[in-house]
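Now for our target.
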Amino acid sequence: MSATTTAVPTANHNSNNTEQQHQLLPPTYIEGWSNLETVRAIPYRRLGRTDMVVSLLTLGAAHVSAKPSTAVHADGSVTGTEESVEAIHEAVRLGVNLIDTSPFYGQGLSEVVVGQIHDVEFGDIEIILSETLPTLARLREENKIRYIGITGYPLSVLKEIIERSTDVPVDTVLSYCRHTLFDDELCRYLPFFEVRRLFLLLALAIQSLPPN
């Protein structure tokens, strides 16, 4: 189970604000179940323009379906995920309330366990702009979802989508392996994300080798 995703706040926070945020309990804290000591030790930030308060330490779910015992059956049910589900529950109990998943992880099995997200480089930009984002906006109007985020490796593609999606504002952005010894391309894009008050997430923050 990896936990190497880093939330990168793109707004300045003074020491007083940081100290206060350390003391406040996140909305995901449950009295009698959450671990108060570890929750207080984790820093939290508001997720961009949203009202969500998330942990800067997040859980990368690339390996939640990596066990050989995990299987998808003809009726669509999935078995062998008990340990992964238990690990996710424990992470949340300890105070981690932000989880990264992708259809690329475990051939989609990761999403079955922890939710859904879409990497934009696997789709057509024109379709994302003309169909995907408007559909998500409609779901938001129907109160079926609250916020819209996009994910992908190419920062230029993420930037283009954000610039062109004038009718459907994007709330969060997630990329990966873009601030390492091998690749620090993210530094060039930070001003762009900051001026738009986007909450930026960096997965595989300590990746040792660039992706193939």
Observations:
- The first strand starts at residue 2 and ends at 8.
- The two ends are 21 Å apart (CA to CA).
